[in-house]
Design goal:
It is a single chain. The chain is an alpha+beta fold and 258 residues long. Helices cover 28% and strands 33% of the residues. Strands 2, 3, 5, 6, 7, 8 and 11 form a 7-stranded antiparallel sheet that branches. Strands 4-1-13-12-9-10 form a 6-stranded antiparallel sheet. The longest helix is centred in the middle third of the chain and has 23 residues, at 82-104. The protein is globular. Mean pLDDT is 90; it is low at 151-168.
C-alpha cells in the first residue's frame, strides 16, 4: 500500500496565536509566529509517521510545548515502535517541557496523536484529545481515545449549550504531566489497511466545529482529489462554522495504481 499526504494548520477565528503543531515525515511547524502553515507530499510513500500536537499554556507557552513535541519526533522516526515511544520519546519530551516550565515559571503542556503507516499496516498512539480517524466504506471511525474527564453536570450544561466545548480544559493526560507514571498512551496497532482508506488526524478545533456527517460528506465528495484539497476544504468549513479554536488537519489517502 502507498500513501499521499497533506497537512494544514490555521489559527482560527477566536485565537490570537496558533498553539497547534504537526508532524509529517520530518516536516513540522517550525515558525510558530506564522498563523497559517501547510505542507503536501503528493509523491506516494509506503511509510508515514504523522502527528498532531495541541498545546496549552499562558502567553506563548502552549506553542512552545507543541513545538518541542513535534520537533523531537524526527529523532525517533527511524525504527519507530511502541517501545521507543514509551521508553524514550515520551520521557524525553516530558522532561524538556518541565525544564521550560521551571525556567519560565509557567504551566504548559500538549496533546499528542500519532499515526504510523507501514505498507498495509496502521497503528495509532495518543495522549489527550487530539484524534485520528479512519474513513472506510462511507463511515468515519475514531481510532484514538479521548483522555478527558467530564462530570455529569458539565455534560448536562454542554448539552444545553451545544456551542460550548466542555472538554478543552479537562484533559486527564497530556505531555507535561508531573507524574510520568501516568504518561501512558492509548494505542492500537496492526490495523489492516484497505484500498480506498483515508486517514484523518486533527486537533479538536476541527472536530468541535464540524459534525461527523459534515466531515464524512466532504471527504467522500473529494476522495479522488489530492489530499491538500481535502485539508483546505475541511479547515475552511471549520472556519465558516465559527473557527473558535486553532484548527489543524492531516489527510492521508491510500493510492491505487492502475
Amino acid at each position: 500500500m502507498v500513501y499521499e499526504s497533506a497537512v494544514l494548520s490555521h489559527v482560527g477565528c477566536g485565537r490570537k496565536n496558533n498553539e497547534d503543531n504537526y508532524y509529517l515525515n520530518g516536516i513540522y511547524r517550525e515558525d510558530v509566529n506564522k498563523d497559517i502553515t501547510g505542507f503536501s507530499e503528493l509523491q506516494a510513500r509506503q511509510k508515514i509517521l504523522a502527528g498532531i500536537f495541541d498545546g496549552a499554556g499562558g502567553a506563548d507557552y502552549g506553542e512552545k510545548a507543541s513545538l518541542l513535541a513535534a520537533h523531537s519526533l524526527s529523532g525517533y522516526q527511524e525504527g519507530f515502535s511502541l517501545e521507543t515511544l514509551q521508553g524514550r520519546y515520551l520521557p524525553f519530551v516530558n522532561h524538556m517541557i518541565h525544564n521550560e516550565m521551571d525556567k519560565n515559571t509557567c504551566t504548559m503542556g500538549t496533546t499528542m496523536a500519532l499515526l504510523h503507516l507501514d505498507n498495509d499496516n496502521a497503528s495509532v498512539y495518543n495522549i489527550g484529545d487530539s484524534r485520528v480517524y479512519l474513513i472506510r466504506d462511507g463511515r468515519l471511525l475514531q481510532i484514538t481515545y479521548d483522555h478527558v474527564n467530564i462530570s455529569m453536570q458539565d455534560y448536562s450544561n454542554n448539552m444545553a449549550n451545544p456551542d460550548k466545548s466542555c472538554c478543552k480544559n479537562m484533559l486527564v493526560k497530556y505531555l507535561g504531566m508531573k507524574d510520568e507514571k501516568e504518561l501512558k498512551p492509548y494505542y492500537k496497532e496492526n490495523i489492516s489497511v484497505q484500498a480506498g482508506d483515508v486517514f484523518m488526524a486533527c486537533s479538536d478545533g476541527l472536530y468541535n466545529m464540524l459534525s461527523e456527517d459534515e466531515i464524512i460528506q466532504k471527504i467522500e465528495k473529494l476522495k479522488k482529489e489530492p489530499s491538500d484539497a481535502i485539508t483546505k476544504e475541511l479547515v475552511g468549513d471549520a472556519l465558516l462554522a465559527g473557527g473558535k479554536d486553532n484548527i489543524t488537519c492531516i489527510i492521508i489517502k491510500t493510492v491505487e495504481f492502475e
